[in-house]
Each structure stands twice: as structure tokens, then as C-alpha cells.
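Reminder: ligand-aware prediction takes two inputs, not one.
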Amino acid sequence: MDDNKYIEEINSAKSQEQLSELEIKLLGRNGIINDLLSKIKDIPNDEKREYGQKINMLKTSIDQSIKVKKIELSKQKSSVFFDKTLPGKAYPKGSIHIVSYAVEEISKIFEKIGFIRVSYPEVDWEYGAFESLNMPSNHPARDDVETSFIDVPAHLKLGKMVLTPHTSNGQNREMKRVGKPPIRMINISKCYRPNWDPTHTPMFHQFEGLCVDSDINIINLRGTLDYFAEIYFGKGTKTRLRPHHFQFTEPSFEVDISCNACKGVGTIHELSVQKKCRVCKSGWLELGGTGMVHPNVLKEGGIDPSASSGWAFGFGIERVIMMKYGLDDIRNYYSGDIRFLEQF
Ligand code: FA5
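Here is what comes back for the chain with adenosine-5'-[phenylalaninyl-phosphate]:
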């Protein structure tokens, strides 16, 4: 039994890990001490007592040496030089996603003028997405090239289940929820259409305004659109309405806003040369659809069209962000590329 060899090994341990390994090797269940003890049966009877005492003494000195070494190593560790004047590690900070931020901004703008923020289902029946909006069953938007249908049995009255292609499905639900005018709704939700190009993604967001009361007219609509455009896009932004067609509004319009890059002129002065504005090319940018709520839609929502009138609009959130910051591809919003997202 070479006592010194074991004690020297303990004393030369350089780390707590090395010491723990030694402790297992010497004192563990299959360690050297237990191995020596198991050999006691081969020792002649008159030497057994002395042999046993020696092993116990060795065990005690190994035990003590390990304890002393542990304390020594822990002191070494705590004496490592710590320079508190060194700059700390800066961990990367997350930020609110560009779309979530816009949802909050838009909600606040409309809440300030009395609109109630709601969010209606992204998965709805054909009734909510089309039927209640005066869209007949042969309307092209109801084709499966335009709308994603869910593979479940159709509802007897409400039709097939769809991933809603627009937030207009909230109109009928809100009319029924409120019961009778006044109604001021801002419905923000995800929408789905099978498209994929720089200005279209299969999943996108729309915000839908609906205002129904007595004597509601296009002047109120213009006032609300101008109010939104000035706050969201910046002072001096103008809106314009162009005739269009939607089944659920009559008359219907497309809304444009004046381009902030060229101030609505369509050209910019660059190095003494008058050039076409690169952002809009015409002085105007298309915002989305709007119009006076069709009498059939009011009736379907339980509202008497001879006593109340209303307007509605539906704009894409990804698109308004694009227009505000002059971005050229909305697919980047969902790329997960932190270099793009951290700019906002
Ligand atoms: C509609 O969806 C109508 N429901 C809007 C409306 C509401 C009109 C109320 C009248 C009254 P439209 O299909 O044009 O209309 O879509 C509106 C906006 O949604 C578009 O201008 C665009 O900004 C956005 N949008 C449509 N499809 C996509 C898509 N695939 N990706 C991103 N944005 C989209």
C-alpha cells in the first residue's frame, strides 16, 4: 500500500473536476479502498487486524487530504482577477414585429375617434365571408383559386368552411353583435389568399372600418380617411376616391393616398432634372377598397336601410407599412431575417 502515492496525487490536482475524479477512484464503490478491504479474506488471521487498521488510516488520510484540497482549490477560484471596469456583454435585443406594431398604431388612431377594436374569426363559413356580403354563389372570389376552403363537411345553412379572404366577414357579425346603430367598428385580423409576389403573401392582415348610423354619408367617410392618412402617413397626406366595384358597397371606390416622396406631384427634381417619382410614378398610391354599405348587407345584419346608412373600408396592413416606409417586398416581413426586422 503506497499511502504517499495517493496523497501526492490528491495534492497535485489542478481543478475541482480532477479532484472529484480522484475521489471516485479512491473512495468510490468500486474504488481502491474498497478493493483493498475486499482482499482482507485472503490475509492470514493473525495479520487481519493490523491490515484492517492500515486501510482505515489510509482512508482517513485520503479523506482529509481531499477536504483540504477542495478548500484550497475553491480559494484559488475566488481569487481570479475580476475587473469590474470592463464593459459588460451586450445581448441582442428583440423588438416588436413590424406588423404587430402597425396593428397597435392603427387601433389607437381609430380608437381615438370612437371606433371599437374587434377581431373576428380567421376561419369562417361561406355565409360570413360571402353570402352575408351580397356575394352570390357564382361570384369569382368564391372560386377555390381565390379562396382556401377547409376540408370539413359543409354547414347546412352557412355553407363551406373557409380561411377568410378579407375582414369584411366582420361586418355582419358586428351588426348582429351591436344590435342597432350607432356602430363604429375597426376589425383587424389575418386573411388568406393563394397569392405570392412582392405585394402579395398567402397570409396577410387587413383592417376594416365600419360606421353605421343615421345620415352617414361619403363626406364622413372622406373625413375619416383624411384623418387616418394624415396621422399614419404624415401631415399633408391627401386621399382620393376612384370609382370601383364591390358587391357589398354601393357606390364603391378605391382609395389612393398622395405620395409622400413627391408630395403628390408624380415627379421629383434630381440633379437639376425633373424625373418620374420612383415610389409612385403618378403622385398617388393605392390604399384599398371602400364604399357605402349596400342596403342588402344592412338588411342581412338586421338594420333597416331606410333609417340608417353606413360606410366601410378594408385596407391591407402589410401594404400600408410598405407605403409608409417605402419598402418594395412584403415577403421580407415573414422571412424571419433579423437584419430586415431590426430596422423598425
Ligand atoms: C377587399 O378585400 C374588400 N373586402 C375591401 C373592402 C372592405 C371594400 C369594405 C369595401 C368595403 P381587396 O381585395 O381590394 O378588397 O383587398 C383590400 C386590400 O387588401 C388590398 O388593397 C391590399 O392592400 C390587401 N391585400 C389583398 N390581398 C393581399 C395579399 N395577398 N397580400 C397582402 N395584401 C393583400
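Residues 45-78 form the longest helix (34 residues). Residues 222 and 343 are 33 Å apart (CA to CA). We will return to this case in the review session.
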